[in-house]
C-alpha cells in the first residue's frame, strides 16, 4: 500500500506497513493536516480518529522517514530525524525519498492521499 504526502509543491511517496493501524490510517484518507514541529525531530498532527494498536509492538525507535502513530496522544508523527526508543509509538509506514521539505521550521500544511497503483 502506498500513500502520497503533498506539501507545498512537493509530493513525497510512502510505503505503508501491512498492519491494522496502517489500514485504519489509510481508511481516513484523504486528510488535510497542519503539521507542527516537535523536538526538532518530527512533524506531528492530531488524527480525526484514533487507530487500533492491539497486538502491535509496545514501541519503536524511529528513523528519518518513518510515519508513525503516537498512541498516548492520538497523533500522527512524521520523523525527519532519528529519535530514541519511544513507548506507544507504532510504525505505519516509511517515506521513500527526500525529507528536506519536512525540515523547514514552523508548521506546514500537508494533504495525504491514497496512491492508486
UniProtKB/TrEMBL annotation:
Gene3D superfamilies referenced in this protein's UniProt entry, alphabetically: 2.40.100.20
Xref: InterPro entries: Cyclophilin-like, Cyclophilin-like_dom_sf
Annotated Cyclophilin-like domain residues: 5-113
Full protein name: Cyclophilin-like fold protein
Amino acid at each position: 500500500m502506498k500513500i502520497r504526502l503533498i506539501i507545498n509543491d512537493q509530493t513525497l511517496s510512502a510505503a505503508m506497513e501491512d498492519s491494522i493501524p496502517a489500514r485504519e490510517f489509510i481508511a481516513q484518507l484523504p486528510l488535510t493536516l497542519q503539521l507542527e514541529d516537535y523536538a526538532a525531530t518530527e512533524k506531528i498532527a492530531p488524527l480525526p480518529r484514533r487507530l487500533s494498536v492491539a497486538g502491535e509492538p509496545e514501541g519503536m525507535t524511529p528513523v528519518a522517514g518513518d510515519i508513525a502513530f503516537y498512541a498516548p496522544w492520538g497523533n500522527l508523527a512524521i520523523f525527519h530525524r532519528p529519535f530514541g526508543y519511544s513507548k506507544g509509538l507504532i510504525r505505519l509506514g516509511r517515506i521513500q525519498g527526500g525529507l528536506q521539505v519536512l525540515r523547514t521550521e514552523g508548521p506546514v500544511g500537508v494533504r495525504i492521499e491514497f496512491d492508486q497503483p
